UniProtKB/TrEMBL annotation, chains A, B:
<dbReference type="InterPro" id="IPR024084">
    <property type="entry name" value="IsoPropMal-DH-like_dom"/>
</dbReference>
<keyword id="KW-0100">Branched-chain amino acid biosynthesis</keyword>
<comment type="pathway">
    <text>Amino-acid biosynthesis; L-leucine biosynthesis; L-leucine from 3-methyl-2-oxobutanoate: step 3/4.</text>
</comment>
<comment type="subunit">
    <text>Homodimer.</text>
</comment>
<dbReference type="InterPro" id="IPR019818">
    <property type="entry name" value="IsoCit/isopropylmalate_DH_CS"/>
</dbReference>
<comment type="similarity">
    <text>Belongs to the isocitrate and isopropylmalate dehydrogenases family. LeuB type 1 subfamily.</text>
</comment>
<keyword id="KW-0479">Metal-binding</keyword>
<dbReference type="Pfam" id="PF00180">
    <property type="entry name" value="Iso_dh"/>
</dbReference>
<comment type="function">
    <text>Catalyzes the oxidation of 3-carboxy-2-hydroxy-4-methylpentanoate (3-isopropylmalate) to 3-carboxy-4-methyl-2-oxopentanoate. The product decarboxylates to 4-methyl-2 oxopentanoate.</text>
</comment>
<feature type="domain" description="Isopropylmalate dehydrogenase-like">
    <location>
        <begin position="2"/>
        <end position="329"/>
    </location>
</feature>
<keyword id="KW-0560">Oxidoreductase</keyword>
<protein>
    <recommendedName>
        <fullName>3-isopropylmalate dehydrogenase</fullName>
        <ecNumber>1.1.1.85</ecNumber>
    </recommendedName>
</protein>
<dbReference type="GO" id="GO:0003862">
    <property type="term" value="F:3-isopropylmalate dehydrogenase activity"/>
</dbReference>
<keyword id="KW-0520">NAD</keyword>
<keyword id="KW-0432">Leucine biosynthesis</keyword>
<keyword id="KW-0460">Magnesium</keyword>
<keyword id="KW-0028">Amino-acid biosynthesis</keyword>
Length: 333, 333
C-alpha cells in the first residue's frame, strides 16, 4: 500500500525491519533487542505488527515474554499517548452485535495513557512468593500531558471530553481527576464530564453516540478500547497511533491471533488503516492517508468482507481471505 | 415483598435498619458507623440500598466518602465473593442495545473477588503530593477461595469456567492464573479457559453465550459486570449477592442514581430480585425466592415496564413509575 502511495503521490519511502516479541525472543533471547530499538529511534515512524504468543500465556512463570518488548518500546520511545479512533464504516452497520440504530453516527476518539499506571509500577512477589503485588502510579505531569492532547483534539472535533477514572476508590484516579479539572480550565469551550470506568463500560454499549473524545488511564484504556472495537464491527478494523516526543508507532489494536495463523483469515484492514494513520500523523500527508481510507471504504462498498465482518446476508463469494482482500484494496488505490 | 412472602409461606422476618454512605456521614460523620456494622453482624442477612453521592465525586480531595462505608462493610464482614447472575428475562430481549439473536440464551454467573486487589492495597501520595499510588495485592489464599466458589457453582451449571486476568502484564494476574490452574485440577469435569480482561470486555458483547461461570479479580469484576448489565437489558434488572464466612449482603448492582432521586423513575426490580437472592442463598428458601422471580416475570409478561427497560414499541400507559410497578409485582405475589 505504501509503495503504491509513493508511486501515486511522488514520494519515496525507505523501509527497515526489526524484530520484537516472540520472534525476537526466538532469535536473540530478548523481547526487544537493542538493535531493534535503535532502528526504531532512527526511523521517522514505526508500523507495528502485533505481539503475543500462546506459549507464554499458559506459563505464568515465564521470565521473558513477548509483551515485555511492547511495553519496553512504549517506555523507551516515550509513547505516552495512544490514540484509538472508533468509527464505523457505514457498510458495516450490520456487522456488529450492537443494534445499528444505536451505532449509527458513533465517532469516538480514545486517548489512552500508555507509559504509566499499573503497567509500569513496581511489581513482584513477597511472603515467600505467596503474595503478588502490582503498584499503580501517576504523577501530575503524566496526567497533564495526556489530558492536554485530549482537549486539543476535542477542539478540532465536537468539543466534548469524557475523562474516565475510578476516583471513588483509587488515589491515582483522584489525582487524575484533579489534574483533568485543572487542564479543563484552559479550554473553556470544551464540555467536560468525569465518569467512573464501570459506568463507561456500560454506556459505551448503551449509547456510544454520547461520546466524542474519551481520555483515560493505561489499564482502563486497554479494557475500554477493546470493548469499543465492537462499535466498529470488529477488532479487525481498528487502527491506533502511539505518540510522544519522538518516533510514533502505528499498530492495529488486535493481537497476534495465533489461533488463525497461516489460515488466511485475518482481516488486514486494521493494519492498512494503521499505515493511513501513520501518513497522516507522523508525515502530515493527509491526502495520501485519505486515499487509503477511501480504498478500504470502496472495497467495503463493493461488498467484500473478511470473515470477521461478514454477516448472514453476505454472499459466500464476497467473503475473501487476507491476501485477496488486500489486493482489492490495492487495486482501488 | 418480604412481608408478603412471610404471610404466604408462614415465616416471620424481623427487620432492623442501619445507615451507611452519605446518609451515615450526614448523621454521624462516618461512612460506616460502628452501630451499623454491629447491626449487620447481628443479622442473618443484609438487604443493601446503594451508595454514592455526586457531592463527593466532584471533590477528589474529600476525606470521608460514601464508598468507604461500602468497602469497609465488605472487608469487615469478610464478603470475599460477589455473585452477579446475568440472565435476561425473555420479555426484555428487545430492550437491550445488543441484538436479540446475540443475547437469546445468554446466562452468565460472575464471581467477582470483593475484598482484595487494588481496592484494598496501600494507597496515597508521595513526592509532595505530586504522585499518587495504589497498590494491588493478592495472596494465593484469596484467589483459591474465590476460585473454589466459582468451580463449585460451575458443577451445578454448564461446567465451564472462564477465569479473567491480565497475566501478560500484571504479577497479581500471574499468581491468579497459577492458583486457578491448581484449583482446576480438583474439578476435572469442568472446562476452564483463561482470558485477558481486554478480550473479555470485547467477547461479552460479541458472543455472551460462550460464557457460563466467569471468575475475576475485584477491579476487573467491577468493570465487566457493569458492562454485562447490558446483556440483561438494564442495570435496573441486576441483583447481586456478596458472601463470605458470615452475614451475606444482597444489593442491586446499580448505584444511588442521584440524577433521578425522587422522580419515581428508578427500576425497583434489581432490589426486589436482590431480596429473592437473599431468600435463596442466606435462608435456603428456594421456593420463596422463585415466587418473587415469577412475580417479576409476570409483570414483564403483562407488558409493564419502567423507563429504562421500555422500548419504542412499549405503549405509553404500560410505562410505570417505581411505586406503581412495585405494586404490580406485589399483586402477583
Ligand atoms: C499485549 C498487551 C500487553 C497490550 C496492552 O495491554 O497494552 C495490548 O492489549 C494492547 O492494548 O496494546
Ligand atoms: C461504589 C463502588 C465503590 C463500587 C465498587 O467499585 O465496587 C460499585 O461500583 C460496585 O460495583 O459495587
Amino acid at each position: 500500500m505504501l509503495d503504491k502511495i509513493a508511486e501515486k503521490f511522488g514520494h519515496e519511502f525507505s523501509y527497515d525491519e526489526a524484530l520484537i516479541g516472540h520472534a525476537a525472543i526466538e532469535a536473540t533471547g530478548e523481547a526487544l533487542p537493542e538493535e531493534s530499538l535503535q532502528k526504531m529511534k532512527n526511523s521517522d515512524a514505526v508500523l507495528f505488527g502485533a505481539v503475543g504468543h500462546p506459549k507464554y500465556d499458559n506459563d505464568p512463570s515465564a521470565k521473558v515474554r513477548p509483551e515485555q518488548g511492547l511495553l519496553k518500546m512504549r517506555k523507551e520511545l516515550g509513547l505516552y499517548a495512544n490514540l484509538r479512533p472508533i468509527k464505523l464504516f457505514d457498510e458495516l452497520l450490520d456487522a456488529s452485535s450492537i443494534k445499528p440504530e444505536i451505532l449509527k453516527g458513533a465517532d469516538i476518539l480514545f486517548f489512552r495513557e500508555l507509559t504509566g499506571d499499573i503497567y509500569f509500577g513496581e511489581k513482584g512477589r513477597k511472603n515467600n512468593g505467596d503474595t503478588a503485588f502490582d503498584n499503580a502510579e501517576y504523577s501530575k505531569y503524566e496526567v497533564e500531558r495526556i489530558a492536554r492532547k485530549a482537549f486539543d483534539a476535542a477542539m478540532t472535533r465536537n468539543k466534548k471530553v469524557c475523562s474516565v477514572d475510578k476516583a471513588n476508590v483509587l488515589e491515582t484516579s483522584r489525582l487524575w481527576r484533579e489534574v483533568v479539572q485543572q487542564v479543563a480550565k484552559e479550554y473553556p469551550e470544551v464540555q467536560v464530564e468525569h465518569q467512573f470506568v464501570d459506568a463507561v463500560a456500560m454506556l459505551l454499549i448503551k449509547d456510544p453516540k454520547r461520546f466524542d473524545v474519551v481520555v483515560t488511564a493505561n489499564l482502563f484504556g486497554d479494557i475500554l478500547t477493546d470493548e469499543a472495537s465492537q462499535i466498529a464491527g470488529s477488532m479487525g478494523m481498528l487502527a491506533s497511533a502511539s505518540i510522544g516526543d519522538g518516533t510514533g508507532v502505528y499498530e492495529p489494536i488486535h493481537g497476534s491471533a495465533h489461533d488463525i495463523t497461516g489460515k488466511g483469515l485475518a482481516n488486514p484492514m486494521a493494519s492498512v488503516l494503521s499505515a493511513a494513520l501513520l501518513l497522516d500523523i507522523s508525515f502530515g500527508l493527509k491526502e495520501e492517508s485519505n486515499a487509503i481510507i477511501s480504498a478500504v471504504d470502496a472495497v467495503l462498498k463493493a461488498g467484500f468482507r473478511t470473515g470477521d465482518i461478514a454477516d448472514a446476508s453476505t454472499p459466500k463469494d464476497k467473503i475473501l481471505g487476507t491476501d485477496a482482500i488486500g489486493e482489492e484494496i490495492l487495486n482501488r488505490l
